[in-house]
From TrEMBL:
This is Lipoprotein. It comes from the Bacteria. The lineage of its organism: Bacteria, Bacillati, Mycoplasmatota, Mycoplasmoidales, Metamycoplasmataceae. The keyword Signal applies. Residues 1-22 form the signal peptide. The keyword Signal applies. Keywords: Signal. It comes from Mycoplasmopsis columboralis.
Length: 162
């Protein structure tokens, strides 16, 4: 009989203790949430920005968004060799030999971005180019991102001489 009673108390205690802990935790969370909501309401009332500060914040947001878009565009741009340039040596390479290809996602955005291609070096059947994407902001500040790309597909020097 004592064993059955001890077993009953252990089962009963095993069920009620976690329930009591859960109930106390849920009550504590509701108090914390109400304190947080009152403090955020008090801080939002204190913040009033002047028109100059609003303009600065808008400019920072614009430059940050433009910079992020340019970085994403530079990561996803393809620099492709034109068909007419495949018959040239890499030593004859120029920026007119390549063109930029943006995906569908960045096609509309690429129209508002200034694109510059510069030849850096040539070696074997490849040429290295620097692609610079830049955008002018509303206050005439220019934000730009550069990426170095190697383009293969030029003729080998020995094959071109023959």
């Amino acid at each position: 009989m004592k064993r059955k009673l001890a077993l009953l108390f252990s089962v009963f205690g095993g069920v009620t203790a976690p329930l009591a802990i859960a109930a106390s935790c849920s009550q504590q969370q509701s108090v914390t949430k109400s304190e947080n909501s009152t403090t955020t309401a008090a801080t939002t009332e204190e913040k009033t920005l002047s028109p100059e500060e609003v303009a600065k914040v808008a400019l920072v947001k614009e430059s940050t968004a433009a910079n992020e878009n340019l970085i994403r565009m530079s990561e996803n741009v393809l620099v492709l060799l034109k068909e007419s340039a495949k018959m040239k040596n890499s030593s004859e390479a120029s920026k007119e030999d390549v063109y930029l290809e943006f995906g569908e996602l960045y096609f509309d955005m690429s129209k508002s971005v200034k694109q510059e291609i510069t030849l850096v070096s040539t070696q074997g059947t490849a040429a290295k180019f620097v692609v610079q994407l830049s955008k002018t902001l509303s206050n005439n500040t220019v934000v730009s991102v550069s990426k170095e790309v190697e383009v293969n597909g030029y003729k080998e020097a020995e094959a071109a001489e023959q």
